[in-house]
Amino acid sequence: MTYSAPQPYGNPNAPVGASDRYSVLAIVGFVLAFVFSLAGLIVSIIALTQIKRTGERGRGLALAGVIISALSLIIAIVISIVVFSAAANQVGTTY
């Protein structure tokens, strides 16, 4: 009989250095996307670069954080432009 060494836990096909734990920055970036969009965007982008380097899980969360943050920032900018242009139009009118 031949002896084979025990296999390590986890996915044997995972890239070297891959981790089974989620990136904390990806989770924080996703949560911040709903609370403070600019911070969520920045943290999610940092998380994406860290995930690429370390092989941690959470790429989907980081991508969702980037997308949600970017969309909410775009919506906020459009709403601000509409509100300020409407306010500027009301300044010169008298009733």
Automatic annotation (TrEMBL):
Pfam families: DUF4190. Residues 24-78 form the DUF4190 domain. InterPro entries: DUF4190. Keywords: Membrane, Transmembrane, Transmembrane helix. The chain crosses the membrane at residues 22-48, 60-88. This is DUF4190 domain-containing protein. It comes from Frondihabitans peucedani.
